[in-house]
Amino acid sequence: MSVWATARAACAALATLLAVACAPLPTTPDAGAGGAEPTSGATAVSGAATSAAKPPRPHLLPLDRQAPAAAEAPRSRVVQIFPDLSETPDGPPDDLQVEEFERGGGSWYGVQFHRRRTASGELFDMTGFTAAHKTLPFGTKVCVRSLVNGREVLVYINDRGPFTPGRIIDLSQAAAEQIQLTTIGFKQVSLTVIPEEGGRCAGERVEGGLAPINMAAAPRPAPARRAPARVVNKRRR
After folding, report:
1. Which of 6, 7, 57, 173 is 20 to 30 A from 207 via CA?
2. Segments of the chain with pLDDT less than 70
3. Spatial separation of the C-alpha atoms in residues 191 and 183, rounded to whole Å
């Protein structure tokens, strides 16, 4: 056999394999089972009936929902408590919230100024809850909050100061101890002025208005008695 005859036979065999591989598959489960291939007309009728009976499936299918638990299924024994915030003894928590007035450094002064006259005329008491501020009117109630530990203390203004840069308020020793300011001596604080309608400080309700200033005069020490002048008798010569 010549080379050309062999090449033609190989091409014919390859063409036969490609024709078998590209042949359409049977459209019904029974096609090819009994050995008889359905005609083209039967295939068209069967396809039309199938499309009419079953609509085409969408691309997105609905999620499978989990069935609810049965009534006799065991329940959790953890008690869930949901607090009722509709009724509180002092009303809703936000009814007396006010805006922050100022933020900066806070310091304190104590025994070295005890019983001295303040700028308002009131005597300084290191055990009282008072403070010094540069501009707030005397008697203004201020809630001082430590930005280090979150503690709060209520004071009223009766003095002027502080005059050190970076500081906005000077607290009495008792007030400073309430917010643990005396341990360092200088901490960052925020000031909230209590308005006329009242407010909150340290978790308690505070009445509005100015605090009274005690203008009682400081006791003055009794004047020291002078020794009587000595009379010297001059002798006559």
Report:
1. 173
2. 1-4, 17-66, 76-98, 216-237
3. 20
Which domain does 163 fall in, by range? 102-206
Return the half-sphere exposure (C-beta side, CA atoms, 13 A cut-off) of residue 14: 6
Residue 44 in any domain: the answer is no
Please report whether residue 77 resides in a domain: no
Q: CB-side exposure of 48: number of CA atoms within 13 Å?
A: 6
Beta-carbon contacts of residue 198 (< 8 Å; ≥ 6 apart): 96, 205, 206, 207, 208
Q: What pLDDT digit, counting tens, does each position of 190-214 carry?
A: 999 999 999 999 999 999 999 999 8
* 16 found inside a domain: no
Ramachandran quadrant class, 180 (left: phi over 0; alpha: psi -120 to 50; beta: rest)? left
End-to-end CA distance of the chain: 186
Map residue 48 onto helix, strand or coil: helix
Whole-model pTM: value is 0.53
* Nearest C-alpha neighbor of 195 from the set 212, 208, 211, 210: 208
| 3 state SS for 170-204 | EEEHHHHHHCCCCCCCCEEEEEEECCCCCEEECCE
CATH number of 142's domain:
2.40.40.10
**pLDDT at position 99:** 80
Q: Residue 211 falls within a domain, yes or no?
A: no
